[in-house]
Design goal:
By secondary structure, the protein is mainly alpha-helical. 70% of the residues lie in helices and 4% in strands. It is built from 16 helices and four strands. Strands 2-1-3-4 form a four-stranded mixed beta sheet, covered by helices on one side. Helix 12 packs antiparallel against helix 15, helix 13 runs parallel beside helix 15 and helix 15 packs antiparallel against helix 16. It is elongated, with a radius of gyration of 32 Å.
Length: 383
């Protein structure tokens, strides 16, 4: 009981950094919650295009082609000057410029592929406009083999292109909320590592002070019992810290945390907390200087968070950085969170990569325990 009371006194001195880490987590999570609204609907969009018609006769097929493009896009009025057109593309006033060539209608009617020159910004709008042009020409080429009558060809093209595809969402999964939950748990990497390492290193270094060590030696408590209570006290702290962050997750993202996604997020964070606990014990056994604790927290917690994608999405990190990150448990913890963003159906096959990541984090924990035991035994042997 005396050891536990002493542990609580030392822990009380460490409350400020824990509060700071929590405030940072809440702030960034709340900010992320406000960045985008819930959106699970599909909405069609129209690209901004400019049609430059060089067909002087303006036959029915040409008129039909221009009419089709105008209906399915936003036709922008720009001066028919190449410099003005280039400026409109540069400033994204126009996404796609179509130059309808001479004899366009005749070429289409006779099954030829007219060469249509274009200018584009190569963005989403330009891609959509290009798809519309290709669709019209493919349909026209198919029906030009059936008839050589202009009126009949236009009718067949219109009938085919007028058919719309109804888009139905096959899922009601709130992907935005899952992304926010993943962001929260990715940032949790830093909070758990920093809080656990900081507190446990300070607590164990305090118990290593000369006066406390002498009192422990002369006391009636056995060395094994003393270490057992100290170990359980630190484990209890890590468990309470994990519980606190889980409760915070339920408050910020209540709906998703009551789902299968939420359950896996919780299990993943619990396994990582155990790993952080074993890592903290290893560092505490290697370092006895209290002044070095802040530097170690910055190197381990901040370094692994930046390298593994806790602050910056892994998709934006260079490949060589991700290769280095493979040797850190944070990488596998965050990788699981990222996988959950894309997962909708939970089967053994879909969960296998996630279970593999969790197993790797557990292996890291076992490695940290083995290294700690080896180092501790050598240290006692040298004494």
């Amino acid at each position: 009981m005396t050891v536990f009371k002493t542990f609580l006194k030392v822990l009380n001195k460490c409350k400020v950094p824990i509060i700071i880490y929590t405030v940072m987590l809440v702030f960034f999570s709340a900010f992320n919650m406000q960045t985008s609204e819930k959106n699970i609907s599909f909405a069609d969009s129209k690209p901004n295009i400019l049609i430059v018609n060089k067909e002087a006769n303006k036959d029915k097929i040409t008129k039909n082609f221009i009419n089709y493009l105008s209906k399915n896009s936003n036709e922008v009025n720009v001066s028919m000057n190449e410099e003005k057109i280039d400026d409109a593309l540069f400033y994204r006033d126009v996404s796609y410029v179509i130059y309808v060539p001479k004899n366009f209608g005749k070429d289409v009617l006779h099954g030829k592929n007219p060469e249509i020159k274009i200018k584009s910004t190569k963005d989403y709008g330009a891609s959509l406009a290009n798809m519309m042009v290709e669709r019209y020409l493919k349909v026209a080429n198919v029906y030009s083999d059936v008839t050589d009558n202009e009126d009949e060809l236009v009718t067949l093209i219109d009938d085919t292109l007028s058919k719309k595809v109804k888009v139905n969402l096959t899922t009601k999964l709130d992907t935005k909320l899952i992304e926010k939950a993943a962001f929260y748990h990715n940032f949790l990497n830093y909070c758990i590592l920093a809080g656990t390492i900081y507190v446990i290193c300070l607590v164990l270094s305090s118990f290593k002070e000369e006066n406390i060590k002498k009192r422990t030696i002369v006391s009636s408590m056995s060395h094994k019992n003393y270490n057992r209570i100290l170990l359980l006290s630190n484990a209890l702290f890590a468990f309470i810290l994990w519980i606190f962050y889980c409760i915070l997750a339920f408050i910020l993202m209540d709906k998703i945390m009551f789902s299968t996604h939420g359950l896996i997020f919780i299990i993943n964070s619990f396994i990582f907390t155990i790993c952080a606990l074993t890592l903290a014990f290893l560092i505490a056994n290697l370092v006895s200087n209290k002044n070095a604790v802040n530097g170690i927290v910055n190197v381990v917690a901040l370094g692994s968070s930046f390298l593994c994608g806790a602050f910056v999405p892994t998709s934006m990190l260079p490949d060589f950085v991700l290769k280095i990150a493979h040797i850190l448990p944070s990488y596998w913890f965050i990788k699981t969170n990222e996988m959950l963003k894309e997962m909708e159906v939970f089967t053994f096959d879909t969960l296998k990569p996630i279970l593999t990541n969790m197993f790797i984090v557990i292996c890291f924990s076992i490695i940290f325990i083995i290294i700690t035991n080896v180092f501790s035994s050598k240290k006692r042997h040298n004494k």
